[in-house]
Every structure is written in C-alpha cells, then in structure tokens.
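User: Sequence in, structure out. Go.
Assistant: Echoing your sequence, followed by the structure tokens.
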Amino acid sequence: MSFIKDYIEQQTLNRRNLLLLSAYGLCGAAAATALRPTGARAVTPSPKIAWSYRDRTNPYWNAIVSGGNAFVRSLGLPESALINLINGGSSEKSLADIQSLLARYGSSLALAADPNDMPNCRPVVEAVSRAGAYVSTIWNKTDDLHPWDFGDNYVSHMTWSDIGPSEQTARVLFDAMGGKGGVVHLGGIASNNPAIERLAGFRNALKAYPNIQLLAVQAADWDTQKANQVMSGFLTRYGDAIKGVHCASDTMAYGVIEALRAEGIEDMPVVSYDGNPQAVELVTKGKILATVFTNPYWAGGITASLAYYAATGAFKPSAEPHEHREFYGPTTLVTTKDAQDFKAKYIDTNPQYDWKNFWSMTRGQIQYGKTI
C-alpha cells in the first residue's frame, strides 16, 4: 500500500519532468503554420512515429506507450525512434505539439493520439490531413467526426464500450454494500468519452438497487491527487453515510484509498477501472473489489501500427469497411475471484502480439446512441 503514497508524492515532480521531455526534439522545429492540403495519397517508406498522450507517470498511459515501444522494436528500431508528445492534460498543448511536429515532418508522420478531450480531436485530425500525414486516435472524439470523411489520412479511431463494464463494477460494489447505503462516484474529465460512459454505467446499475443512495458525483479529472482531495471533502461532508466508492479510473482510486486510510478506514468497498498493474495487485488483496482491463499495451501498439502501415502504403484505409476504421477495444472485468490468474497472464508478462493483425482483438464497430 505504500506505493500509493509514493505515487502521489512523485506525481508533481514527474509530471514537470515529463512535460519537459515532451518538448525534447521539437525545439528546432519551425513554429506551426497553416499546412497546405495535399492531393494524391503519399506513401512514406520510413515515416516518423509519434504518440501523443497525457502523462507517462499514469500507469495506464505508461502501458499505452510501452505497447508503442514494442511495436517500434518489432520494426527493428530502437525505442528512441518513438517520439513522445506529452500534453499533461492540456488540449491546447496537445494540438500545438502535433502542429509543431507536422511543421517539421509534414506527410512523413505516422501519429497515434489521444486528443485529450472530444472537441480537440477535430483540429488534430484536420491538421494531420492538411499535412498529408496519418493519424489513428483513441478514446476521445465527437460523434459527428468519422475517419472515412478524411480519406486515408484519418486512419482509425478506437474507443471502449465502457457503459456495460462500468455497470458491472457498480453491481459488484452494491452487492458488497449489501444492496443499501450511500455511495459516491469520482469521475474523469467531464468532456471525455470514457468519463461520460462510465458515469452512465454507474447510473444504470443504480436503477436496479433502490436502497442504494447516491450521495454525490464529482469529477477528479483522472488525477490521483485531485481524487484524494475530492474524497477527503466527501468524508467531511457525508462521514459515515458513505458505504461505498465508485471510481472511474484506477489512478483516482489510489487517491481515494489514501484519503480513507488517513481517516482510519481500511475496509470501505471501492471499485475502479483500467486494470493497471497496481490496481490488479490491490484487487488480489481485496483492497479494490473490481477493475476493468482495457489492454492498454495492445492498444498502444496497434494504434501506432495502424498509422504507420497506412503511411507506408501497406494497406489503404479508405478501402477498409467502416468497422475497421471505428471500433471498440477489448474489456475484461477483473474481480477478487480471478485476479491472481489474470495477473499471471496479463500483468506479470506481456503477451506477444502480431502488430500487423490490426483488428484481431476489436469488438465491432462503434455504435452511437446505444448503451452496450
């Protein structure tokens, strides 16, 4: 359990260092300028590969980038060949860093990206398309933005169907509470697709448990320190009325657990999401009752692979069916009953993946307006 306190203390310093790292290699780039539209599809034998993401101090994003590194190694390249664009949760920085990279490399860029929030996805995609480069995105985009509207340059978008799995974690929590008592929910960034869907799944579960009282819902922005502060506030406000905690991510659960420990509370039922190694370890010990694994290692590698092989001309995105361009990634519920076996298979070692088998683990085309 000491890792939680260490994790919280190191976040501020690590985030500052990683933000500096995100600018490494970009200092000599020209300032971002308006990029001209391109005509015919350009093929680049050896495109530059980049991953744009929030924060590598976060175990989830560390796993994403580890998958990206594994893909790069599969090409016979050193891990340093992967350009890391770390935005620290800023959509403005995300777009500015991508524009700077496009100003340097133009159409010779294969980009994997989480745009940080839904509205930011469109300007990122438009900038990449104007440059004639290639981008595959995950998690965050608006429902009206589709890869097939941008020819080959917007290669793909992957998200996860979080409503059903989040409802499952809520049911695990409510059952542990004996089907009654007060519950609080800590959510992610309000404009993030996963935050919206995980809250929706939580609310769906509430409908089947009339004796569970929802005390509060508050965003903690996927951040451990903010979650710690939010949970401390909940404890001050609601005290013993809180009988369970539903967290939209593992990293926020760490802050919740530390806040509970500070009040001498060791047995509060808590559930979370993402299946990070530390969270799975806590599930094996019963400190977290359930989490949901989204296989970020595979997602990080396959997203980079899709952008790269589209850039090289190995496949033509516009010739693929829609289910190969917008799709769900895999999810697995991990509970105290199966956490040990799961840990041995997915956490203690990373399975070997065929990075050219792009859609082997996808779960069908994204469906809008449906709760699956």
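User: And one key feature?
Assistant: The chain has a mean pLDDT of 91.
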